[in-house]
Design brief:
The chain is α+β, with helices and mostly antiparallel strands and 356 residues long. It has helices at 3-28, 35-52, 55-72, 85-155, 162-194, 206-216, 240-257, 312-322, 350-355; strands at 201-204, 224-228, 235-239, 263-271, 274-281, 326-331, 337-344, 346-348.
Length: 356
C-alpha cells in the first residue's frame, strides 16, 4: 500500500473514531444536556476534523455525526423518525451546515496551499536567478582565464621563457582551484538540500586537519594565517571531510572579505564534550543587523564588491548542523569578526600519550 493510501486510510479511521468517541461521551450525559447542545458539540467536532484532514474523511464525519445525532439524541431515540417539524428543520439545517462547513474548510485549505505553493515557486525562481547570476560570473571568469592562458601558451610557446611559462601555469592553477571550489559548493548545496548527507565519523587529529586546510587555501601572499593549537588535545571522532569543508569555507570567507594585510587566526579547543574551531580576523567585521542573515543561501553583504555565490557560509552551517553542532558569528571587541564552531564528539586521549 502506498504512503498516500495509508495516509487516507488513517484519516478515515481517525475521523470516525473521533466522532464516535465524542458521541459516546455526549450519550453518557444525555440526561444532563439537551440534544440541541449535542448538535453544537458534534458540529464543532466536524469543524475540528475539517481543519485537520482531507475532504472525503470530513464528509464521512459529517454524515456519520448527522446519523448519530438523529438516531441517538433526537426523540424518539434509537429510530430515524423525527416527531415534529422543528426537529426535522433542525436536523436538515445541521446536515447542511456540517457538509457546508466541511466543503468550505477544505476550499480555504486548498486556497492557502495554492498561495503557499505560488510563494514557494516565486521564491525558488528568485533563488535560482540569484544563483545563475552569481555563478555565471564565478564560473565564466576562471574558465575564460584557463582558456586564454592555454591559448597564449599554444600560440607563443617558442617566444616565452621559463619564468613566463611558470607564471601562466600558475594562473591556470589558481583559476582551476577557483573553478573547482565553485563546483564543490554547488554539489555540496545539492547534497544538503536533497538530504542525502551521510555522516562518517572517524578519529581525527584536529591539528593535522587544520594544517591540511591551511595548505589548500591560496592567500595570494596578501593575508597572514596563524594557527594557535591548544596543548594536549585528544583525538576527536568527527566527520573529517565535513569538518575540513567547514574550516575551508570559513577561512576562504575571511580571506575574501578582509582587506590585504589582514591577519586570520585559527584556534582549536576541547570544551564540554565538543570539538571547538574558531576562525577570527582583524578585518572590518559585519554590520550587526546583517549577522542573522549571513548563513542564508546566496546571501552576500549589501554593496560588497566581492564576487561570490553566497554559498560558502550556508554550506558551513549545513555541514556543522549535520554533525549536530552549532556555528556562531560574532564581531570581536577589538575589531574584526569571529566564527565559532562546536561539534559534539567522542574523544580519545591516546593522542597525548603518542605525543609524549
Amino acid at each position: 500500500m502506498s504512503s498516500g493510501l495509508k495516509k487516507k486510510k488513517y484519516q478515515y479511521i481517525i475521523s470516525i473514531s473521533i466522532v464516535l468517541l465524542v458521541s459516546l461521551l455526549c450519550f453518557s450525559v444525555k440526561d444532563e444536556i439537551n440534544y440541541r447542545i449535542v448538535a453544537l458539540i458534534l458540529l464543532l467536532t466536524v469543524s475540528v476534523i475539517a481543519m485537520l484532514f482531507e475532504i472525503f474523511p470530513v464528509l464521512l464525519s459529517a454524515l456519520l455525526s448527522a446519523f448519530i445525532w438523529n438516531y441517538c439524541f433526537i426523540p424518539p431515540i434509537f429510530t430515524l423518525d423525527i416527531s415534529n417539524a422543528e426537529d426535522l428543520l433542525m436536523f436538515l439545517s445541521y446536515f447542511f451546515v456540517a457538509l457546508l462547513n466541511a466543503v468550505l474548510t477544505y476550499k480555504i485549505k486548498q486556497a492557502e496551499k495554492n498561495v503557499r505553493d505560488k510563494e514557494e515557486k516565486e521564491k525558488t525562481i528568485v533563488l535560482y536567478n540569484t544563483l545563475l547570476n552569481s555563478l555565471s560570473h564565478e564560473l565564466r571568469t576562471p574558465i575564460a582565464t584557463i582558456m586564454g592562458t592555454v591559448d597564449t601558451l599554444k600560440d607563443n610557446n617558442d617566444k616565452l621563457d621559463n619564468s613566463q611559462k611558470l607564471d601562466l601555469l600558475n594562473d591556470i592553477d589558481i583559476a582551476s582551484i577557483r573553478l573547482n571550489r565553485q563546483v564543490d559548493n554547488i554539489l555540496n548545496m545539492s547534497r544538503l538540500e536533497s538530504g542525502t548527507l551521510t555522516i562518517k565519523p572517524d578519529w581525527c587529529d584536529i591539528d593535522e586537519l587544520v594544517n591540511n586546510v591551511i595548505q589548500k587555501v591560496n592567500t595570494s601572499n596578501t593575508h597572514t594565517v596563524y594557527f594557535l593549537p591548544a596543548a594536549n588535545l585528544p583525538l576527536f571522532k568527527i566527520d573529517i571531510g565535513f569538518t575540513e569543508q567547514i574550516l575551508l569555507n570559513l577561512l576562504q570567507n575571511s580571506i575574501l572579505y578582509t582587506p590585504a594585510g589582514s591577519v586570520i587566526i585559527i584556534e582549536v579547543a576541547y570544551e564540554l564534550e565538543n570539538c571547538v574551531l574558531i576562525v577570527r580576523d582583524n578585518g572590518p567585521g559585519f554590520p550587526e543587523e546583517e549577522i542573522p542573515l549571513v548563513f542564508k543561501k546566496f546571501y552576500r553583504l549589501p554593496n560588497t564588491k566581492i564576487v561570490g555565490s553566497g554559498l560558502g557560509l550556508s554550506i558551513a552551517k549545513g555541514f556543522t548542523e549535520a554533525q549536530n553542532g552549532t556555528i556562531v558569528l560574532e564581531n570581536n571587541i577589538d575589531g574584526g569578526a569571529g566564527f565559532t564552531v562546536k561539534i559534539p564528539a567522542e574523544v580519545n586521549f591516546l593522542n597525548n600519550l603518542k605525543n609524549e
